[in-house]
Write a structure and sequence with these properties.
It is built from 19 helices and 6 strands. The model has no long low-confidence stretch (mean pLDDT 95). Bound molecules: arginine. Arginine binds next to helix 7.
Length: 473
């Protein structure tokens, strides 16, 4: 059968790429021109790319690889390009694939041949590795600052509600009374660990891959310590092949971002529960809720729901990049161009979620009466009764647990709280019970008595707030 020209293999009339097309007779197929470029998203790396090039050029000059004159022209040209991009006067070209080649091509227009010397002793492989690390490092710093603000908002509410009693839940069933401040402080701990992960990941990623060149290093007498220092890295990376193929730093960022997003999602879920008409524990401000076009009474916790929902995007980004990296042989493969979009999206999504959560927490109003009333349901002081039997009557805890169970049964039958049973009714369950037991059956007493380290007693909560402020703010 005679070969038909395949419709989907239209050749573009574009000529070979000026940056690398020396041995190419013609340009890419249409579909290739569509699948290949990354400029649509990696233009975000322009500032990092220019910073990396400035550091590289300065090093080449100092090492005598580039003349002072060329160095000066490159520096001036790059700074001009930065201004062009920042003022919106830069024409990004898809045909130039990515941010690295867009900037270099413009540099050539501006300064001529000297631009071609900038790429001495480096490759796009180490260039993109350094650009992306710089971007992720900044994202770490931004995340840390935002999480700090969230902790500050939680701490302020915790301080106001160190003694506000609410039910603590297990299985979303009333378990034991706690304070709202104590509950909020649990999140201060979570976001504190998130910040710890940010700091750890940042320290690990802070090594400079620039100068690894394509994969094997370079024969030019470069000074990688100089570029590392200029870009704020602690040291150069140690292995050129690892330098251009490693994306651990992005994976670590997405991992810590995912954990943080899950923490946010749990708090968001609690807000959704707390603001429901059945709970009424918390009222969110107008600024973070929406009404309904049909039901005039509605105040929907949309921001909380979106934070809960967006956690899926962040964890999805982690799975996406893990899957991209899995099974890639050393060193660079174009697959790795797919590393950026998930990271950009996850970082921006997460920063927005932290900001929104901070605002919601700052504005929220706790309904202490509703919380207290709920804390008194569900026989929440049953453990206090069992503990009293152990402490005062010397009854083994297992037996005390059984006796308390019978008292609960009695209260259920009478549809009253435990402290509404009469002494006679309690003594019918166990004769050793005395009227002193009523001292421990109130939710106030219950909360106040939990003075163990890390416990919910208001005194302990206030200490925890003070310590957390010193540690985190
Ligand atoms: N745009 C590419 C990326 O993001 C830059 C590196 C290209 N390197 C290469 N050998 N083609 O990964």
């Amino acid at each position: 059968m005679a070969a038909k020209p395949a419709k989907n293999r239209k050749k573009s009339s574009a000529s070979a790429n000026p940056m690398w097309g020396g041995h190419f007779a013609r340009g890419p197929a249409q579909a290739m021109a569509a699948i290949n470029p990354s400029i649509g998203f990696d233009k975000k790396l322009y500032a990092e790319d220019i910073a990396g090039s400035l550091a590289h050029a300065a090093m080449l000059v100092k090492q005598g690889i580039l003349t002072r004159e060329d160095g000066r022209a490159i520096e001036a040209g790059l700074k001009k390009i930065r201004k062009e991009i920042e003022s919106g006067n830069f024409a990004f070209r898809e045909s130039l694939e990515d941010i690295h080649m867009n900037i270099e091509a413009r540099l050539r227009e501006l300064i001529g041949d000297a631009a071609g010397r900038l790429h001495t002793a480096r490759s796009r492989n180490d260039q993109v590795a350094v650009d992306f690390r710089l971007w992720v490092r900044s994202a770490c710093d931004a995340l840390d600052a935002k999480l700090r603000a969230l902790q500050a908002a939680l701490l302020a509410q915790a301080e106001a509600h160190a003694a506000t009693i609410m039910p603590g839940f297990t299985h979303l069933q009333v378990a034991q009374p706690v304070t709202f401040g104590h509950h909020l402080m649990a999140y201060v701990e979570m976001f504190g660990r998130d910040r710890g992960r940010v700091v750890d990941a940042r320290a690990r990623m802070n090594e400079c891959p620039l100068g690894a060149a394509a994969l094997a290093g370079t024969s030019f007498p470069t000074d990688r310590r100089m570029t590392a220092k200029a870009l704020g890295f602690d040291a150069p990376t140690r292995n050129s092949m690892d330098s251009v193929s490693d994306r651990d730093f992005a994976l670590e960022f997405l991992s810590l971002a995912s954990i943080c997003a899950v923490h946010l999602s749990r708090l968001a879920e609690e807000m959704v529960i707390w603001t429901s008409a059945q709970f009424r524990f918390v009222r969110l401000s107008d600024g973070f809720t929406t009404g309904s076009s049909i039901m005039p009474q509605k105040r929907n916790p949309d921001a909380a729901e979106l934070i809960r929902g967006k956690s899926g995007r962040v964890t999805g980004a982690l799975v996406s990049l893990l899957t991209t990296m899995k099974g890639l042989p050393l060193t660079y493969s174009k697959d790795m161009q797919e590393d950026k979009e998930p990271v950009f999206d996850a970082a921006e999504t997460l920063l927005l979620c932290v900001t929104a959560m901070t605002g919601m927490v700052e504005d929220m109003k706790a309904n202490a009466d509703a919380m207290r009333a709920a804390a008194e349901t569900g026989y929440s002081t049953a453990t206090d009764l069992a503990d009293w039997l152990v402490r005062v009557c010397g009854i083994p805890f297992r037996d005390a647990h059984h006796i308390t169970g019978q008292a609960v049964k009695k209260a259920e039958k009478k549809t009253c709280r435990l402290d509404e049973l009469t002494l006679a009714e309690l003594q019918a369950v166990d004769a050793r019970i005395t009227k002193d037991v009523f001292d421990v059956l109130s939710v106030e007493h219950s909360v106040k008595s939990r003075t163990s380290l890390g416990g919910t007693a208001p005194k302990r909560v206030r200490e925890a707030i003070k310590a957390a402020k010193e540690r985190w703010l």
